[in-house]
């Protein structure tokens, strides 16, 4: 079982940070032992069915069976609440973002036998599906954008089950224009071949956002991110990334859990009361970002206050 002490550090070395800035990703690294992860998931998957305390529970019918229904379960599930603050993760994130950090979103990414792979894509403001920027960096950041995503394998993630793929070094130039809109076409799921691989984006076609319609990602440089249960990978959301289809060679679902982090200076869901994307809609009146490290000296994001077993959302918090 993975044991961590209060004084143990997982901070990245200067060389590791330099590699991260060059390549756009770091890892895989271990967060849990394999058996520990499997035991945690066996318990957690039963709790997922209970949405009585989920922050979007009133919107579940509107969200339907879409990816938006997977958002932010760390705000009602104790295991996930602990997971986003694990020192194995937070120490590495603060090595890049600095001492004051928020976790602003989490998502499950299941892939079942026979499921298509995910399109090559980048995310800067996360307006790609909603049409509204969901995170906004200050102008003083000098063009910086995106979020650090820590994607943890809850089950086996390999080339048969549909692991992630990265194209190293592609995080400093956006090849897509997120101010454009993608058309939601759920009938296209699992039915479109791109360069010989079944790929999609939860009912969207990411090619609609290309700045140059003739451009194609250089898949010859793609690197598969093979991970055992309990391992994680950390990457910039602006890094060109995708996933392979699940071949169906095994009956096991591939499940990844993505936690997204930004420094406290970033505005989260500015001037936004609800998210509408992936064919669903959820209100943000019960949402709050989680301060996982340091202090929030800016006060422009609504924060969730963690108690022993749950999060509360103080009415005095500023609106998102």
At a glance:
By secondary structure, the protein is of the alpha+beta class. The chain is 14% helix and 25% strand. The chain has five helices and 18 strands.
C-alpha termini separation = 39 Å
The biggest beta sheet reads: 6 strands, antiparallel
Overall residue-averaged pLDDT value? 90
Tally the beta strands.
18
The second-level CATH architecture is: Sandwich
Q: What portion of the residues fall into strands of 2 or more residues?
A: 15-25%
The CATH homologous superfamily corresponds to q2cbj1_9rhob like domain
| Percent of residues in helices | 10-25%
Low-pLDDT segments, ≥5 res: 316-320
Shape: globular
Radius of gyration: 19 Å
Total domain count: 1
- What would the CATH topology be? Jelly Rolls
Secondary-structure element sequence?
HEHHHHEEEEEEEEEEEEEEEEE
What is the overall number of helices? 5
Query: What is the CATH class designation?
Result: Mainly Beta
In spatial order, strands of the major sheet run 1-10-5-12-2-16
What structural class results from the helix and strand content?
A: alpha+beta
């Amino acid at each position: 079982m993975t044991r961590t002490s209060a004084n143990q550090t997982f901070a990245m070395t200067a060389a590791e940070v330099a590699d991260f800035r060059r390549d756009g990703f770091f890892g895989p690294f271990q967060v849990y032992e394999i058996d520990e992860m499997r035991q945690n998931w066996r318990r957690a998957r039963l709790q997922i069915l209970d949405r009585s305390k989920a922050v979007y529970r009133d919107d579940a019918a509107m969200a339907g069976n879409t990816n938006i229904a997977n958002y932010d379960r760390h705000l009602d599930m104790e295991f996930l609440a602990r997971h986003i603050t694990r020192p194995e993760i937070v120490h590495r994130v603060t090595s890049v973002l600095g001492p004051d950090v928020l976790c602003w979103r989490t998502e499950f990414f299941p892939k079942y036998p026979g499921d298509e792979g995910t399109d090559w894509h980048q995310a800067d403001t996360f307006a790609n599906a909603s049409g509204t920027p969901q995170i906004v960096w200050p102008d003083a950041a000098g063009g910086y954008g995106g979020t650090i995503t820590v994607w943890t394998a809850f089950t086996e993630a390999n080339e048969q089950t549909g692991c992630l793929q990265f194209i190293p070094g592609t995080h400093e130039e956006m090849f897509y224009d997120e101010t454009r809109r993608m058309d939601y076409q759920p009938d296209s799921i699992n039915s479109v071949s791109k360069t010989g691989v079944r790929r999609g984006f939860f009912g969207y076609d990411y090619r609609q956002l290309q700045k140059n319609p003739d451009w194609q990602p250089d898949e010859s440089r793609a690197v598969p991110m093979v991970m055992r249960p309990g391992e994680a990978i950390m990457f910039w959301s602006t890094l060109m990334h995708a996933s392979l289809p699940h071949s169906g060679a095994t009956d096991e679902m591939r499940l990844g859990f993505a936690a997204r982090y930004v420094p406290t200076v970033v505005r989260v869901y500015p001037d936004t009361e609800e998210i509408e994307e992936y064919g669903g809609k959820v209100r943000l009146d019960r949402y709050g970002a989680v301060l996982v490290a340091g202090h929030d000296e800016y006060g422009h994001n609504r924060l969730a206050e963690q108690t022993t077993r749950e999060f509360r959302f103080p009415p005095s918090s500023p609106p998102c």
